[in-house]
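P.,

For your records, the input lines for the assembly:
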Amino acid sequence: MRKVLLPTIIIIGTILLVLRLFYLQIIDDTFKLKSENNAIKIQYDYPERGYIYDRHGKLLVANQPSYDIMVIPREIKKDIDIDEFCHLLHITRKDYDRILEKAITFSPRLPSVFLPQLNKAEYAAFQEKIRKFPGFYIQKRSLRDYQVKFGANIFGFITQASEKTILKNPYYKSGDLLGKQGVEESYENILRGVKGVKYIQKDKFNREIGSYKNGMYDTIAVQGEDINLTIDATLQEYGEQLMINKRGGIVALEPKTGEILALVTAPSYDPAILVGRQRSRNYTALYNDSIAKPLYDRGLLAEYPPGSPFKILTALIGLQEGVIDEQSSFVCHHGFSYARGRFMRCHCHGGAQQLHRGIYESCNTYFASTYMKTINKYVRPADGVDVWSRHLRSFGLGEFMGYDLPTGRRGKAPTSKTYKRIYPNGGWRSTAIVSNAIGQGEVLMTPIQLANMMAAVANRGYYYTPHIIKKIEGQKIDKKFTTKHMTTVDRKYFEPVVAGLFDVYNLGTAHALRVEGIDICGKTGTAENYAKINGKRVKLQDHSIFVAFAPKDNPKIALAVFVENGYWGARWAGPIASLMIEKYLRGKISRVDLEKRMLEGSLQSEYDKYTGKKETDTLLLKPTAPKVIDSSEIEN
Amino acid sequence: MKNQSVTNNLDWMSVIIYGLVVVMGWLNIYSSSLSTVENSVVFDLGTFYGRQLMFILFTIPLIFMTLAVDGKFYEKFSVILYGVALLALAGLFVFGKTVKGQANWYSFGGFGIQPAEFAKAATALALAKYLSDVQVNLKDTHRQMQALGIIFLPMLLIAPHDPGSALIYTIFMVVLYREGLPPWYLWTGFIAAALFMLALIFEPWVVILIGLAGIAFMYMKTRLVDRNLIASGIVLVLISGFVFSVDYVFDNVFKQHHRDRFNILLGKEVDMRGIGYNTNQSEIAIGSGGWFGKGFLEGTQTKGGFVPEQHTDYIFTTVGEEWGFLGSLVVIALFLGLIFRIIYLAERQKTKFSRVYGYCVASILFMHFFVNIAMVVGIFPTIGVPLPFFSYGGSGLWGFTILLFIFLKMDANKVNEW
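Structure tokens returned:
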């Protein structure tokens, strides 16, 4: 049997080799990646980002060249003069060590950004000495150059792709820039273009020995496309000025098309501060401001109880459901007693209220009665709520609506399920949810939803999905923005409601805000809100709300204005809305005193009252819908 | 009497496999040393592939000479050839030319010759001659020592310059076993090698505990009457002494680059740009091949010259990268085919001399094949051993060619044996 030993050794040895080969070549694919990393150098050619224009073709956002210092750690020579290097770039030795360590952690072989976004002077100084610092090189990119000081929330900003993004989307490599928030994010693929790639074969000394496979895989950069926004730059700028020292949002739409004319959030910031070397510090400052939240687009994200403007929907749904007509009347005793011990106060002039006066005097009793009749039309209140909720959804409530901006909130259009959660044992009736009638209760709306509701009213029964894109060079805009959405309320029921809204200005809560020669239809609103301060539920100053469209016939603009803690509707939101309308339709302002008061007015003292200034961190200023109905105190 | 011509009795199967391996080897040398910058002719003595082509062409007259020599010549002159080989190896200490830290070359004009590559054939002949003597019985301790001496003499002469080639000689132990060497030699060698590796990985006392457990197991298994406590104790002392001396030898006798090679294998060394570079790069190159490889002349690692010594000891990385797992299997299959063919031929030899020689040839080829590829794929320490017929180098190619064709001549000549 001595013959068998050698063949056995041979076979065992060979099996070992084959298994090892199988592991290396088939199972473990880290080697494959490593091979591509060290033999091929990839060079990118970044195209310029597309420009952004407003609806009239005014240039809002352009580009400027920027220079990043890149580093390939393993190519750094040991004997470079680090002090001189730091001095040139105005960084400390500590920074140098920290950044380099980070780069090495990422990869010693691959380039990472050492210092982003140098300005021209820094670039020139460094460029002269760059040959002294092997391992570092300069990558040219284009940065945003903002032509205006407003619209930060609309544009968004440009930032380096995060590691998460790089993992998720193979297009982005470390150090690549991409748009975040605003149109920079939603139209990223169009604005950014496609970067060009050059593969270069290298040898072990890292010398480039020519193009890889004769450039078979190389691609040419594709320029980013320019886009036109639906924004009216003048109106946007004016809106932002009006909102200085206030918090809240303005959303203005063109009812006939759904185009967003202005999208204001306050407080905001100059978009230019998020460009260049200071970007990261400024961004951190904005990000950490948890009280004023300048990065939080209130026009899209803030879910407020809509307050009185919601009465428009209550009326429309009541008419559509046939529970009221124009002549139905309810007697108001300066309040509405809907259950034992439950009383909803009302500030109207009292007496028998019909639809028309109910709207312009904003009578709580009238709308509470209408709402209860709507719900009670069905045997089970749950069915009534669901019918009502379906009507709300046809106006865009309780959904994201599908506009072309990357952030948004659904708001809330409660259904029977909502109340099943609140009252798990059932037994609830229309009286339990009656505060919905006046836009308190469980209903929540974002300003853009309010504006969209007004657009639907202005159009007497339809709306287009709000959108911010007007034109993309060489492309059509998304078809969903040109599709008409019909509401579930018939056209004929809108006229009496519109007539009531018109008289809000003539006879009602906004009569002081009339603009000579412009027929405005509007509705004031005041919403209660509460916040938890140090664990206690505290009632804060009411929000000031105003919704409007104009002119009454053939409307050109519909808008919603929301001013946080602005006392009541006609105090801040109403005047701002009327100024916006005048500015947009006329181009100039006739009521200079009012304009001055609004521009200079400040609610800062009001905000400071709640934040206590010093213990700012303990407060979460999140508007919450009141659940205690009998304390509802609704003005206007 | 049958036809006595060599061509009719030559084992053509071996010759064809030999030819295939040589051609594949050249293609891979061509790929690994082809410069991307210039487009030069194939027969260019300034390049590795050009010179290798010349070496290959020169094997043709070499083969004819080897086959033309009288069949009895090798047996008769084996002792003389062995003596010449020993002298040549010894002469390296005086006249050797140092190339890459190894003084194992004789320089003749522009070309160098490595005597170690030819000494293997001479040692095989001498061993075959010694064992074929009717008086030699390997059960005899005296004979065992003589046989081992034949192996260890050239091995000791080579070891200082070229530990890789010296390692190859250990495979002769298997040949001796085939011819009657008691198995405990192999066991001792195997256990010593295992203990050596264990001692490097674990603390000494762990290894001694393992040894103790092994001895206890053996002790319990043997019949009661045969139990020998003293012998077991001696074995334990030997094991302990060996384990501690391994640490001592490793730390004090080995040179740093030897230590490093073991450390890489054991995963202790992480500096992939320093000493770990070779193994890491060769694993990357092979690993990047996948199932089918990147195609001839398409290997990015090969083109980039990342693998050191790729045309010589690391030539298999080119196979792995450009021909993939399947291509590697083909090369392995060819080697396996050749080695088993030789074993088959050896076993049917009529004389003990040619049988032992054939066995030696198969063993040497396998040892080279295994150690080389194992090193390249990272399961064996980095040690300079060429892949037979494949790696770049005239001495290696000619040495293996002579080694193989001497046996094929013997095989073809067997009809003349009675």
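Two observations worth noting. The two ends of chain A are 109 Å apart (CA to CA). Chain A has a mean pLDDT of 84.

Regards
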